[in-house]
Amino acid sequence: MANTAAMPHSSRMPPPTTTTFPLSHLPNEIIHMVFVQLTYRYQQKDIAHLRLVCKRFADIGNFYLISEAHLFFKSSQFQQLRHISQHPTVSKTVKTLFYEADTLSHYGSMQEWKQNICVPGWFRDLAPGGLTFPSPTATEREKRAYKRDLDKMMHGPKLTHSNTLLRRAYDVYAGYLADQEVMRQQDYNLGILKDVMTKMPNLKTIEMSTECCLNNGRSTRMETAFKDGLSSPYGDRQGGEGCGVGQLRSILVAADAAGLKLETLSVGNVDWRFFTESSKQDIQVLRKMQRALRSIRTLKLYISTSSEYDDDAYFDDLSHVMVPECAQYLHENSHLKDFVTATPDLERLDFNFDCDDPYPPASMCDAVGAFKWHSLRVVAFAYIAADEDCLAHFFERHSSTLRKVRLESFLLTTGSWPSLLKSARKALKLEQASLSGKLSSADPLESYYFDLPAGLNGGRRAKIDVVVEKYLLKGGDGPLLDLNYLVDKHYRTYVDPDEEPWAYVDTESDEVRTFRPYSWSFGSQ
To answer: Are 493 and 459 in contact (CB under 8 A)?
Structure first.
């Protein structure tokens, strides 16, 4: 057995020691930097936990605890917002207000309410990205997942609630309805909002969403807030004023009263009647709403022309869509134009309607007129009409600043798209161009479809999209766009090799007919 020499005790390595640096010795600048990093990563819970270290950490953490306040249409949430505004430090750190303005639908009886029970989290269990028709190249696994989600959508959530629980939940739901009606009678809590915004001097951004329009859908916080009533707010089409009209009015009137210098306003979906005169919106109220926009740099409007929402009926029956009324009102009154052009420092304008049947609900001349924004860099129009001269002059007025353009489902009432895009190419120096939906003109043969859904083309963009957008950005020698060839090639490759690309069904005779547009070219740049 080998001998092992014992080392003298004095030559052994000392036991490891742990050196600690007291967090209380950190300078304030380092503590601020730590909180800033947590803010960038949206780790609000970690910020709250870090504040518990000591009073100094708590005081510094207050500056980063709440940068965005979240509000939805419930009295307790307005009171919570008021508590935030009363804090001497936190109230000054709020820069964004995200308002989910959806309301609960009113059902005539408990039986009808039972048929519309919402199970929190049920929709989130569907496949990521929502229910999308599988592409022709989808795997068997993707097809099975689609079928499973489709069955789930068709049959709805399984309910296992007892009658006692249902009765209790219905009483809670009825209480929420009564609470909402009280807030409506108080002009959508205008008084509370005025008091709150007066104490939030650094509020710069307001986002108001209904019908899951903004931020990719309904938040889990709102679902949780109403889950004990087994209902979830969606839209606001049962009120007399239209979806989101009262909520938007109260927010903007309060912002004007508080003298806020807002920089961003995003609203959708909001009923088109938000800019009309009514018993609650006289001309003075409209002027206050406009004044609230005087410092706005980003304005996003998603405007609805539907007076009600009834699931499948929304798509099958357009009798409730108020496109003619909206178009006539816009032509006879300048309220929407006054609202949009009350933003002299505007840098981005997203102007979107939701329907163009039987024709677009707004024209550019009625919506923006001949106004010129001196800093406009980004513009997007959807479901709007314009004559060629009006749109060309808009591009010319903003040629020195405009760099990004998106047009979706746009109608030219006079002129033609080849001529218009050629003049746009000459006037603008674009960094990004996007065309989508149906671009049509007064000529019934001039109708071009861009941006086919990714689920129908294997994730590939149609060649017509690529060629036209490339021309707008880089010009060229005048590409000849043979639509018959481009669309035929796209459909044969990505959609259905046996389907006639331009076929459609005549709804009166059920006869399949074929429509073929003519080719168009731009000429040299």
So the answer is: no
Contacts of 473 (CB under 8 A, 6+ apart): 430, 431, 432, 433
DSSP 482: -
Q: Rounded to whole angstroms, how far apart are CA atoms 342 and 338?
A: 6
Residue 413 and residue 393: Cα distance in Å, rounded?
A: 15
Q: What is the pLDDT of residue 245?
A: 93
Closest to 100 measured CA to CA, from 196, 227, 243: 243
Distance CA 227, CA 413 (A): 49
Phi, psi of 484 (to 5 degrees): -60, -45
Tokens at 73, concatenated: 């249409």
pLDDT in tens, 153-189: 555 555 667 889 889 999 999 999 999 999 999 999 9
- Tens digit of pLDDT for each residue in 291-320? 999 999 999 999 998 765 444 444 444 446
Nearest to 361 by CA among 414, 311, 302, 309: 302
- CA distances from residue 227 to 116, 158, 169, 176 in whole angstroms, order as listed: 13, 16, 9, 11
Q: For the chain, what is the largest distance between any 2 Cα atoms, rounded to a whole number of angstroms?
A: 109
Using pLDDT thresholds of 50, 70 and 90, give the confidence band for residue 501. Answer: very low
Residues in the chain: 525
Partners of 386 in beta bridges: 412
Both tokens of 41, joined, read 């990563």
| DSSP assignment string, 62-131 | HHHH-SEEEEESSHHHHHHHHHHHTSTTGGGT--EEEEE---PPP-SSHHHHHTT---TTTGGGSPTTS-
3-state secondary structure of 454: helix
For residues 290, 293, 295, 296, the Cα torsion angle rounded to the nearest 10 degrees is -150
User: Which range among 29-38, 182-191, 278-287 shows the weakest confidence by mean pLDDT?
Assistant: 29-38
H or E element that contains 407? strand 404-408
Q: Is 120 left (phi over 0), alpha (psi -120 to 50) or beta?
A: beta
Closest CA to 494 of 137, 133, 134, 131: 137
Measured between alpha carbons, how far is 455 from 245 in angstroms, rounded to an integer? 35
pLDDT tier at 524 (50, 70, 90 boundaries)? very low
Backbone phi, psi, residue 212, to 5°:
60, 30
Backbone angles phi, psi at 316, to 5 degrees: -90, -25
**Residue 130 pLDDT exceeds 60:** no
CA angle 323, 325, 327 (to 5 degrees): 65
Task: Please report where in the chains the tokens 């086919």 appear, as a residue.
Answer: 452
